[in-house]
Design brief:
This protein is mainly alpha-helical. The protein has a domain of about 45 residues. It is built from two helices and two strands, in the order αββα. It has a two-stranded antiparallel sheet. The longest helix is centred in the first third of the chain and has 8 residues. The chain is globular.
Length: about 70
């Protein structure tokens, strides 16, 4: 699905955990993907290094309360 934007909303819904799993940074927070797989654009991401995951186009942004004023 080219040019598709996906939003995950609501408090306490696991947004940060989901994005950390997708971006392969969950282990840095003491977590682990224990079952299933993560696919994006026909590529399985859960076996790639974090820097290889960002290249295909996944992005995260910091929470608004932690952003510095421009």
């Amino acid at each position: 699905m080219p040019n598709t934007v996906v939003a995950v909303l609501d408090n306490g819904a696991g947004k940060s955990t989901l994005l950390r799993a997708v971006s392969r940074t969950l282990a840095f927070q003491g977590g682990a993907l224990t079952s299933g797989g993560i696919h994006f654009g026909g590529t399985r991401l859960d076996g790639l290094a974090p820097d290889r995951v960002v290249a295909p186009g996944s992005r995260t942004s910091r929470k608004a309360d932690r952003c510095s004023p421009a």
